[in-house]
Amino acid sequence: MSPNKLSGLVSHTVPRASTMIAQLKQHGVSHDELLSLMENIPRHEFVEPAFSHLAYSATPLPIGRSQTISQPLTVARMTEWLLTYARLGRVLEVGTGSGYQTRILAHFFNKVHTIERQQLLHQQAKQRLTNMGVNNVEYLFADGQAGWPIKVEMDAVIITAMASKIPLALTECLKPQGILIMPINQPTPQIGCWRKEGDQWKLLATESANFVPLLDGIADE
Ligand code: SAH
């Protein structure tokens, strides 16, 4: 069999971007620009090479340093909440990871600030997105629970690692009416989307999901 015929066969046995998009639509994701963006971002370049053939399947995958990229539906859901509720000015992301969610935020927001506590992942994500021509992102290697080191008010904060409490510094940097998206592990693991209304928080949406934990300090080995 010629190599061309073989690659033709293989491409039918692994999930492709188009399959991923069809599944997202089945689960109610309907934002056309988001769907088209996710169809065109090479998700296989964001996961550990040994898992790149599974990049478009409905599952979280390893990205190195025992961390995972969220499954496509979770990324799409969190982004749709932002597109529905947030002003698309400045966003803070805690948990850069592979940079996949960062890449999507950079498409919709004017400016993205992203923090990662694993130095290797921070460096790889920065290199990856820079190579892709993304130029509206500021990257920081730090414990994101302390927030962005310079006082800038955010229209939205998105945390992509799970905790039991919302770190105070991350709520304080939000503008009035700002949007917070965060996975919380109680009473059961779920992601929530809240709007800051004075000193109250209005819950706008929630969905069950699992995430790696939000950890203290940095890892620079
Ligand atoms: N949004 C990422 C998901 C990565 S998983 C993606 O699309 O790939 C969550 C990430 O949060 C991990 O990389 C983990 O190292 C990071 N993380 C956990 N606790 C953190 C903290 N306190 N500050 C910054 N990053 C943190």
From TrEMBL:
It comes from the Bacteria. It is an enzyme of class 2 (transferase). Gene3D superfamilies: Vaccinia Virus protein VP39. It is found in: Cytoplasm. The keyword Transcription does not apply. Keywords: Cytoplasm, Methyltransferase, S-adenosyl-L-methionine, Transferase. InterPro entries: PCMT, SAM-dependent_MTases_sf. Its main location: cytoplasm. It holds the Pfam family PCMT. GO terms for molecular function: protein-L-isoaspartate (D-aspartate) O-methyltransferase activity. Its EC number is 2.1.1.77. The keyword Repeat does not apply. GO terms for biological process: methylation. Belongs to the methyltransferase superfamily. L-isoaspartyl/D-aspartyl protein methyltransferase family. PANTHER family: PROTEIN-L-ISOASPARTATE O-METHYLTRANSFERASE (PTHR11579), PROTEIN-L-ISOASPARTATE(D-ASPARTATE) O-METHYLTRANSFERASE (PTHR11579:SF0). This is Protein-L-isoaspartate O-methyltransferase. The lineage of its organism: Bacteria, Pseudomonadati, Pseudomonadota, Gammaproteobacteria, Oceanospirillales.
